[in-house]
Design a protein that fits this description.
The protein is an all-alpha fold. It is built from 10 helices and 2 strands; from the N terminus they run H-H-E-E-H-H-H-H-H-H-H-H. Bound molecules: zinc ion. The site of zinc ion has 7 residues, from loops.
């Protein structure tokens, strides 16, 4: 159905997407497929896949997506490609088809980008550099750059780092909720408390109201 509609109409269908996934949809094109969207200077309609912050491959032909405007750097995470493609499919199934596994893969991705505290603290410790994801994919700590990190205003990772996040989400999804509990040990203070309450919500969505009424009795 979507393929017969103009891009502007297609974009409206994003309103059906859950909030966790919608954070990962860009307002402007981030990327394109050189096969389906060859570069020229004519105005071209925006393809849906150009806005999706969880894609590393083109949903039409399967080719690797490339940055639309910025520098095109190779990803240092090629060896995680298999897991990254699984993660891409998990996030895509959730966003486009409302399919969830034991939790929201987009929520896993969000939690993986929270800060962790490495132990022992490295020389010249830079708190912004160390994310929960780096506990699963250690190469990340060295590669990450401050300007490439997601912010509330711009929550989408650049294409060269995105495979790490998708692979991390796939690894946690496969391992199950216990892995999130283990990852919590990498955090401290308020961040750890926020992470804990997020995974409590993930793990006990149905019993939450019962738990809070029991708390009131105590
Ligand atoms: Zn393509």
């Amino acid at each position: 159905m979507f393929s017969t509609e103009p891009a502007t109409v297609r974009r409206m269908t994003f309103s059906n997407i859950a909030q966790t996934s919608r954070r990962l949809i860009a307002a402007r094109p981030l990327q394109s497929c050189s096969a389906c969207h060859p570069g020229d200077h004519e105005p071209r309609p925006i393809l849906r896949s150009q806005l999706l912050g969880w894609r590393i491959t083109c949903p039409l032909c399967g080719d690797v997506l490339r940055h639309s405007a910025e520098h095109d750097r190779p990803s240092p995470f090629d060896r995680y490609r298999g897991a990254a493609l699984i993660g891409e499919r998990l996030l895509d199934d959730e966003a486009e088809r409302g399919v969830r596994t034991w939790t929201s893969p987009a929520e896993i991705a969000r939690l993986l980008l929270m800060r962790r505290v490495p132990r022992p603290l490295p020389r010249g410790y830079e708190p912004w550099r160390f994310r929960v994801l780096g506990a699963i994919i250690p190469d990340l700590d060295d590669v990450i750059e401050r300007r490439s990190l997601p912010t509330p205003a711009s929550p989408i990772l650049p294409l060269n780092l995105r495979p790490a996040l998708l692979a991390g989400a796939a690894i946690v999804e496969r391992a199950g909720p216990e892995m999130l509990k283990m990852l919590r040990a990498n955090m401290m203070g308020q961040n750890q408390a926020r992470f804990s309450s997020a995974i409590d919500e993930i793990m006990t969505p149905a019993s939450r109201s019962m738990a809070s009424s029991q708390l009131q009795l105590i």
